[in-house]
Amino acid sequence: xxxxxxxxxxxxxxxxxxxxxxxxxxxxxxxxxxxxxxxxxxxxxxxxxxxxxxxxxxxx
Length: 60
Hints:
Elements: H1 9-59
Main location: mitochondrion
GO cellular component, one term: mitochondrial inner membrane
Subcellular location: Mitochondrion inner membrane
């Protein structure tokens, strides 16, 4: 008794894996960018603005 070959299964699974990887990668990228990076950048900018104001106040 022969077992029928399973065709197309690998191709379907491949595209599911590629789609899932892209979706998770893009979601992770957005989470990092908007959840951490921009907040850290704002903190850094605020620090340098504060430092520049203190230097300007000390010069006068």
